[in-house]
Structures are given as C-alpha cells and as structure tokens.
C-alpha cells in the first residue's frame, strides 16, 4: 500500500520569544549589528548546548547578536521545526528584542543544518497550508549539515520521517538550491561519515547554482563536534564534545569569510 500523509494546517505555536535564548553582541560593539539564528543539531531528539550556547558565545564575541532557537523535536515532526525556524527569523527581523539588527543569517549543525537549508531555499512543504513567501536568511553557516536525505541510511530516514517518507525529497534542501540562495560557508571533517558527503553535496549544489560558497574539510573530529574546543556547555558533558585544535580553526576561517562577505567590518 502506498504511504499516505495528511496536510497540516499551521499550528498555534508557543510564542517564539519563549523558545529563543538571546546572546547580544559584546558590549564593545556599537550600532547596528548582524544577527544569526542558531539551530543546534541533535537528530530532532535533543539540542546539544555546545552547538547552541557554544556557537552563540563565539558569535557574540565577533560582534554578532545570536538567537538560539529551541525548535520542536520528536515526536513533533515537520512542519513543526520549520515553522519555529521561520518564526525565529521573523522575530530577529521584526521582534521586540530591543536590538539594532542589520543582516540576518543562520547557522545550523547536522539536523539543524537541514532546517537552515530549508530556510535558505525558501522551501514550502506540500503538507503545509497557508504559507507564502517564507522568510529567508541573508547568509548561512553550515556545520556538517544535512543536505540530502538520500545520503543517510534508509533506516535512519524512516525513523526520522515516519509517515512523512513520501516527502523525503522535499525535506532534502540541497535538491532545491537555485541562484536565489544566500552566500554560504560549509565545513565538516573527514572522519564524519554523514557530515562529509553532505558537506560535499551542499558545495556541489551551491556551486552549480552559482551561489557563493566556501568549503573547509578538516582531518580530525567526529560528527557533532561543534566548536571543537572541548568546552562543555549546559552543565553536563556531551558525547560529541572533543578538543581538536586544528578543526577548531574553522571559526577563524568562518570569521574571515564573514568579513569577505561584508557581514562583519574589517
């Protein structure tokens, strides 16, 4: 029997401001500042603090306002996390947070990178109703981010999607890249079985669409390594926290890329 799924009308969500933890740019920075929506990974089962607070503190030190989103996890399935991510972008641009915000970007790790990719491509799912012209970021940072569900083991995809398996391709953001997608920084490690092929696919799709893209592949570090500085956040150690000094230099490369793209001033 062919799998079926139902159309889902937009739910009435918890106010997005209650799902966001704000880390403003450090006090030494003045005036209008860029902002980033932070989407941790975790396979839609958890939100690792080192990919949330960790990234946010790094961004704050660069002079970027960071908004860490606690998007909905399983058993809630799509479009719930995508609705939260869109609302997060809208909140940064139009919300009552009291900050002077310039360009707005997104950073996503692993599953959070899938969400970031759906934002980047402006994808509206066939199971959604009443969605038009969704918000999109001005720049993106993708850390071992999911590009194409076909690059994951079928059993993982089935567990992740459940009865949404018929829209697997819709939920593979790299399949929907075109020239309207924002400039993107991509990185992964060579020791990351899901991260590396997805990073390569992101780069291939972006380059094919003539989207400005920069790719970095580092030799050491497993999936989910985050800043790769070995620092714990959230009060509890996480299985993916590790210290890989060379891999940790991705933040320096990314900061240079942000300056090259004009997001940060020299």
UniProtKB/TrEMBL annotation:
Question: Which taxonomic lineage is given here?
Answer: Bacteria, Bacillati, Actinomycetota, Actinomycetes, Kitasatosporales
Q: Name one GO biological process term.
A: xylan catabolic process
Tell me which UniProt keywords the record has, alphabetically.
Carbohydrate metabolism, Glycosidase, Hydrolase, Polysaccharide degradation, Xylan degradation
Give the species: Streptomyces agglomeratus
The name under which this protein is listed is Xylanase
The transmembrane residues are: none
InterPro entries reported for this sequence: AB_hydrolase_3, AB_hydrolase_fold, GDXG_lipolytic_enzyme
What top-level branch of life does the organism fall under? Answer: Bacteria
One matching Pfam family? Abhydrolase_3
* Residue stretches making up the Alpha/beta hydrolase fold-3 domain: 54-225
Under Gene3D superfamilies, the record lists: alpha/beta hydrolase
